[in-house]
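Case study B.
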Amino acid sequence: MKHEMSAPDQWLQLHGDILYRYGVTRVRDSEVAEDLVQETLLAALKAKKSYAGQSSEQTWLIGILKHKIIDYFRKTSRDKTQEYDEGFTGGEVDYFDQQGNWKIDFSPWSKPDKTMEQEQFMMTLQDCISRLPPKMAQLFVLREIDGMNTEEICELMSISTLNNFWVMLSRVRVKLRHCLDINWINQ
Amino acid sequence: MITCKEASYLASKKLDKKLTWRENLNFKLHIMICRICRRYAMELKKFHHTMQKAGESSLSLLPESVKLSRQSRERIKQTIDKVLHQTE
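Model:
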């Protein structure tokens, strides 16, 4: 199926909010996300001749936004390697005692089924993610939600070894699962 | 016997990568006797699948009430109109 392109001056109206939501979930900063929407639309204007109509206009725009997000991550990981180390050291201390036993328990969890439940779940999840150190949040979203591959993430976030990557991912999962346990599941 | 901390690490890694036979054995032995880790591993798996599904429908991560602010929308609109004007 071939998709038609709408007039460029309609893009903001048609796709602006969707691009914004996509961006803000990933960069976790509303101002940055707004800028990325603008950059995406400007890049799309330049590239509009290359749009072949193979994917929908929205998919095409999100594709451009993804590149912008990756550029942004690349830039910030160069600037802030330090913050990221801080964010990851000692983060799991609260969850295990010195012998490495759990200090917390997890309640069993039923998946959010109804639309309203899902919406609430996503809000709680966003809230939990935003309490994480920024780099930890970034790692989680790239891997768990966007399914980006391990090597790419390590390169993008300047993570030196795969082993570090697995350790970080494990920590962020414990943290989030625990946060959800407290804030959503037991409601 | 590995600790819960190590088991939690393996439960996580297992979702993304095939464990070595030794890792797998250690993990299996541990969760046989540890209720919390058994539950944690199960819960983590559910969580992982929920996240993957959310990612596939990449638009539903935030409710539709989350929108560009009026000011930023206006600012973006002006920038775009300017560029469109130049190219005409």
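The two ends of chain B are 72 Å apart (CA to CA). The remaining cases will be described in the next quarterly update.
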